[in-house]
Amino acid sequence: MNFVIDGIRYHVDIIGEGFPLILLHGFTGNTKTWTPFYEKWGHHSKIISVDIIGHGGTESPTSVDRYHMMAAVKDLSLLMDLLNVEKADFLGYSMGGRLALSFAMAHPHKVRKLVLESATPGIELETERMSRMEQDRKLAEFITEKGMTEFVDYWENIGLFQSQKSLPDHTQARIRTQRLENSIIGLSNSLLGMGTGSQPSWWEQLHVLSNETLLITGSLDKKFCEIAEKMTRHIKNIEWANIKECGHAIHVEESEKFGTIVSRFLSK
Predict the structure, then answer these.
(1) What distance, in Å, lies between the first and last C-alpha atoms of the chain?
(2) In b/e form, how buried is each residue of 147-179, taking b as 16+ CB within 10 angstroms?
(3) Over the stretch 235-248, which tens digit does the pLDDT of each residue have?
(4) How many other C-beta atoms are found inside a 10 Å radius of the C-beta of residue 222?
């Protein structure tokens, strides 16, 4: 289904009849990230799976301002209003996890439970934020200058995704195809507007988050395990599932286990 939100056409999958569950994919992903879980989660949730701005079937405007994290948060709030959803569970992976957490910080009354897969509240130190913004700017230029195929060749070989090299060839091919479905302008602007360096840092405000929160990480993803461990010291109502011998994308590498963990958390 398509919805026009503040002038932008959004693609959204809606499946199931239970309590609303808003699904937010990662950078270079789209709603297909979550289709393997639609049947399982559709038994207990009304799934609202969103192509984030600049990705999949959602439009990719030229203005970077439209991609800023809090602009994306506003779009999600307007989408909920359009769908007459007063409160929902949120599940986000990586970039989608940062968006889900940002939404919960801005609209805690609209969130029941929060599931964050391999996500971060942002970067605390301003010097590190500025450095990350510069990295993202250079990567955005790389996408613009080299094109999607060369960028995806690079992206699927970064250290964050090395554990995916052991996945079956057909799974790796599916992920690659999904990445290639995105647009140059959409991905480059997402890096500039919604990158980890560009978004607000929520570290100092995490202590006010009262929503039930589940963190899911892979034990091989050391950086995000350290982030999750630190988050558990800031958020009161929190659980952390760390999946052994798994990397950044638990929903791909241990899909059955991931789906069950999410179902148990949302259903309890």
Answers:
(1) 30
(2) ebeebbeebbeeebbebbeebeeeebeebbebb
(3) 989 999 999 999 99
(4) 11
Pairs from 174-178 (Cβ < 8 Å, separation ≥ 24): 175/252, 176/152, 178/28, 178/29, 178/30, 178/32, 178/33
CB 158 within 8 A of CB 190: no
Q: Residue type for 46, please? A: K
The structure's pTM equals 0.95
The tokens of 3 are what? 């919805």
Task: Give per-residue pLDDT as tens, 106-135.
Answer: 999 999 999 999 999 999 999 999 999 999
Residue 75 confidence (pLDDT): 98
Q: Tell me the Ramachandran region of residue 17: left when phi exceeds 0, alpha when psi lies from -120 to 50, beta otherwise.
A: alpha
Nearest of 229, 230, 237 to residue 209 by alpha carbon: 237
Total residues belonging to the chain: 268
Distance CA 73, CA 193 (A): 12
Alpha-carbon distance 238 to 215, whole Å?
Answer: 8
Count of alpha carbons within 13 angstroms of residue 176, beta-carbon side: 17
CA dist 241 and 225 (Å) reads 10
CA angle, residues 231, 201, 185, in degrees to nearest 5: 115
Contact 47, 13 (CB under 8 A): yes
Spacing of C-alpha 131 from chain mean position: 22
R_g over Cα of the chain: 17
Q: E strands, 70-222, where?
A: 88-93, 111-117, 212-218
